[in-house]
Amino acid sequence: MHNAHMFLQKQFWNSFWGICILIAFIFAVHAWNLRLLYTDPTVRNQVKTSMEAVAEREGWLISDMPVRKVTRDWIVIHYRRHVRGPDPKTCYYIALDTHAISPCSL
Length: 106
What we know:
Layout: H1 2-33, H2 35-39, H3 41-58, E1 67-70, E2 74-80, E3 89-95, E4 101-104
Antiparallel strand pairs: 1-2, 2-3, 3-4
């Protein structure tokens, strides 16, 4: 009985640390895709300006436009209008210089 308990306890801790590593990996990938947003004030300001311009022009809420990736030239957002029922998600590139949007694949 004691050996079974020790085995289950070891499995629990292995599972716990495995899940912690998986979560850390997911956050690291997300942070890497947004690194310019965190480190470059010029890019951060361009992203803010572009998102506000697109939201106003398209009639979207900024909260419906989560940023998925940032480069020096464009950002990727997954637009999702929050309505009753299923909320379909659409991927867009937004050019930081012209604020033009173009579809991309999820």
